[in-house]
Structures are given as structure tokens and as C-alpha cells.
Amino acid sequence: MNVRTREHGRFYIGPNGHRRFAGSASGVYLADTIRHKLASHPQRDGGVMEAFISQLEGLPPAREEQPSYTPYLLTAGDFSDEAELRSRFNTYFANWHPLFPFLDGAYLQGVFKRCAGNARAGAAVFEGMGGEHALVLSAIFRSIFSIGGTGRAGPGIPIFTDSTSASTLAMVVLGACESNRLDHISTVQALFAIELSLYFARRFRPASHLSGLINKLVFEAGLHRCPCRYPTTFDLPSERDLRKRLFYSIYVLDRFLTRHLGAPITLRDIDIDVCLPGAAEIHGEPPSSVGSTDPAATKSTKRKRDKEREDDTTPASPVPVHPSNPQTHDGAPPGSAQSPTTPFSESQTRASAVNKLMPAFSLAQLAGIMGRIMETFNGSRRWRAADAEDAMRIRTELEEWWIDFELDMQDVTQIQTTDSRGRYTALFRSLYNQNLMHINRHSLSLPPESIPHRNALQAIILAARTICSSLSIELGPYPGSAGPGSASGSGGSRGVGPAGIGLVWPGYVDMVFDAGLALMYGTKVSAKLADDRAAAGIRQAVLVMDRLAEVWDGLQPVVMVIREFNKRLDPHRIASGTGDTPDLSLDWLIGTDFNLEANPSGPEYMFLPGFGAGLGGNSGIGPGSTGLGGMSGGGGAGMGMPGGGVGGGGEFGGNADLLHSFNLYANGMWPGPMPNAQS
């Protein structure tokens, strides 16, 4: 049997008047073939396609009265603190939109100004808009204000206060789509905005549940198919661009949630043929395109792209990646400095538009590598068949990605080029080291005296120390800070991070915990890792956790363990604590979900009196801490993504392997129960 056939799927118009996708497995190709064969017959095709579509769609939904969305829509009262909402809006688009460019920033900019104006005039916020349109915008704005506040609460600010309210709104949006009142693209944008807000709040399980729903809508809307393959269906460059950006935003977040929870991959690369936004279009740009994407972008290095762009002045599609900063746009004096959210105009070149997409481009590339790491090392035991060559191939992919990124960043400083990824250097550096840990972590299941175990341990320890050092610089005290709780310097991020860095990544917690486990494990099995070297990394981890506790509640279990690690490695630097000695067997941590809704009670913190001198001299690091100085900061900066991986089971997924290895050496050494560990 010849399996290399030409059967394929296609788009069709659904009952709601919008496009839906029927995959080849549905039999749409055969139905099309029969329809074409009958097209020349006097009686035509007899309604073959109509019948096929009807059996795809099933029974039409019952006729309903227009539902009332009023309880879920934003009101004039929600816009009472317009300045705060503007700040959150700008913070979101400056920090998060370049990584997840699934929205049309310029359009939302205009809607925000219109809504604020209506609120000031006492009119309905969404005056003149349909109910479904207002529902989608309410979901998106509420998500933006939740993320842009960087963990800050605010009286009267329309944010999600818990996962239940977010999930309820998501179901209302889905209901509008199911009743054919809302198109798939608007539905997916609204649902993904809610998912991203849940991810930011570290409510990973509700976010993952919503991700599964979104993935099904992705397939139904055909977002997993490159729009350039269907030039008559998607004839506008702006529409093709938006579909690509929306799909890869979903793809990236799905990868991180999957790895964190240790779940199988649902958006598999073998089911996807969408070209990366900003990369070469391998399916060819349709003739109607105003300007094609960069033909050299898949080479990854901006150095290679720049050479081929020198004579290219084709204007880009006018779909902006960044909206205007409302404060600058509404009254900044001429010649004043522009914020990172200043838009690019239609007259700017395609090269500039592609440069705006580079953070998302690099993150999507890495998400693909992450998926291959999980498939190689963490698949079902029955089908797992990774060998040394597979491991080398994955490691090579990761190194190529990182080398390309580093060389691009060197060009920025050496030849004064611009790269929109520059402000995310810390994020990508830490992601690289985190993935090094994941590639090597499986070897820790081997005997400690074996060469593969020793080699992997050294790589993991180096990556762990780099993560701790980088994050302590990125999130530690900095000149001009007013201490924890300050909103200066990072767009209202409660003093987390140096000036100009407002992105506070939810995965910091998991990265620091992974690194702490690795360093402690290394001191027990490797004579070459001196306690004082491990202690330096653990001290930096404590500093980072103190900062993160300002943004997210419910981190007490992790903070407690990291502090106890520090006490065991360097007891003379720790103020004496009270209560029982924690049990560091860590079995209780497997299955614990550290998120905003968890708030276990625990013993009082043991505070560190000596941090800050080498990191900028900020006072008041951690609640109730006093006395500064005594630690100099290492080089580098970094951010992270959720750790955990796949393969171990429980909330931390692949972390269970490392936890188990650590337990082999910790059991019996630190007796006694963890106080309130199970609360």
C-alpha cells in the first residue's frame, strides 16, 4: 500500500459564518473529490459538501434568546482610576506582549482610550458595541490589568482575584462561541488572555485545564496550519500575521505548562506546519502580500539577516506589535524620550517589524527544543528509546540556539545594531541553563560513582549556580530602590528588579527550587563541591526567594526549605530560629502546588542579616530583616521559566527524580517533622 498520498484537509465556512478546519482524517478530501466529479453532471453534486459539513457540525444549537453578559462586562466604575489602569496597560505591553504577541496592540490602545472617555462621560464603557464583542474585550482587559499590576492589588481595579472567577468568565466566552455568536479567533484570543493571567498568578492547574480547551479550538480554527498555504482563504497579510502570532503564543505557553506539570505534549510538532512569525515563509508568500517575511530569518542569527536586509525596504504589514504608550502619546513634549512601547509606523521597514517579533521568535524556537527534550527523556517507558546520539542531538540544538543568541547580543554592543531581545537577555540566559539541567537530570538516576552521573552532576551544578547568581542580580537590591514594596523602577512591580526590568516570571520560584535541590544534592555525593561554594549559591537563592515572596503568596514551603538549606551549609550566617528542625527528606513537596491560592501556615521565617552590599545597598531585604552588607554579587543576570520537567509524576513532574535522589542522602540526617508541611 502506498502511504505517501495527497489526501489533505481544508477550511470551510461554519454555521457561524466563520472559517473552520476539517482535517484529512475527517474524509473531507474524498467528499471534495466526489463533489468535483459530479460538478459537470446536469443535476450538479446533489449537495455533497452541505451534507458533509452538516455531519461534521452535528445538530444545530437550539434557538436562544440573546444572553445577558452584563455581570461580566467592565463598567464605568472599573475605569475610575484611569492612571493606574494606564500604568498596568503599558507595563503589560512593554514586558509581556513582545513574548506573547497574540493581540493587536494598536487596536486595543484605541479601545482603551475610547472606554476611558466613555467612563468619564458617564456612558456605558462599551457604548455601541455588541454584547459578544464587549465580552471579549472585558476578558482581555481584565487579564491585562491583572498581569500588568505585577501582583499588586488595588481597590476598584478590575482584575482576577482567584482562579474561579477567571474560569467562570472563560466558560461564558466559550458559550458564546458554542452558540455561534462569536468567531473562533476572538474566542481563542480572549481565552488565551485568561490563561496567561492564570499562569502569571502561578495557578498552573487551572491554566493547564484552559490550555487543553484552547488547543481543541486551535485545531478547529485551523491555527495549526500555515495560513500561507491557503492564499485564497487568508488573502490579507495582517490576518496571516495575526494567526501565526496567536498560534505560537499558545504553543509556547502550552510547552511550559506541560513541562511544569509533567504532562504529555498535546501540541506536537508533527501536527504543526505554521511558520514562525518573523522567520522565512517556507510555503511561499501569497502574491497579494504587501511584504514577505525575511527569507534569512530561519538562520536564526540576526547577523545573517542584517546582510540580506541592506537593500530591502519593502514596507511591513501595518499590524503593530507594540501599542503607543498612552502617557507619551497623550502629551509628551516633542523630542522627549520614547518608552519601550512606542509604536512603529507603517512607513518603517519590514526589518523593523521582524525585529519586534524577535523575542517571540526566540522563545518559540526554545519551546520547540523543550518539547523535544521531554519527548526524548520523559516519554512513556514503553516507548522511550533515547540513546547517546539522541541526547547529543538535543544538546547540540540547545547550544546552537544559545550561541546564535549570544552572537546577536554581541553585535548589539560591537556594531551598534538594535535587537528587541536585548532587554530579555536575562530571561534567555536562565532558560538556557534551566534546559541544561533538564537534559542532564535523567543521568542522576544512575549510580553516583558512574561517569555519566558525575558528568551530569557537574553540568547541573554549574547551571544551578549560574541561575542563582543571575537571579540574585536581576531581582536583588539596586540603587535608588526604596526597598521591598517600592513601585519605583519597574513599572509598578513592587520594587522587584532593577530599573527598566519589569518582567517578573512565574517560573523563578521553580528555577530557584531546582537549583537549591541540585546544589544540596551535589554536596552529598561529590567531594569536589565544597559546602562553602554551594552555600554561596544557596545564599543567593534565599535573596531571590525573599523578593519573589513580595509578588506571590503561598511560597512559604519553598522559602522554608531554601532557608534551611542555607542554615545547614552555612550556620554561622543565620540568626537562630525557633521550632523543630525541618525534615529535609522533601517527600512532602511532591504534589504540593505553590500558587496564589495556597497559603499554608508555617513557622516564622529565619531572617538573613547580611545581604546587599555588593548588589546596590538596598535596605530591608525580606520581611523584618535588618543589617546589610557582607555579600558581593556575581556577574550576569537572569530570569527563568517554570521548572519541573516531565517523567517523575506529581506536581513537579520530573523533579521527583531529583527529589528521590536527594532523599537517599538526606533521610536520617535531619530528623523531625516539617512543621505544618502538610497544611
TrEMBL record:
GO terms for biological process: DNA-templated transcription. Residues 283-351 are annotated as: Disordered. Keywords: Nucleus. Pfam families: Fungal_trans (PF04082). This is Xylanolytic transcriptional activator regulatory domain-containing protein. It comes from the Eukaryota. Residues 207-283 form the Xylanolytic transcriptional activator regulatory domain. Residues 336-351 have a biased composition (Polar residues). One of its GO terms (molecular function) is zinc ion binding.
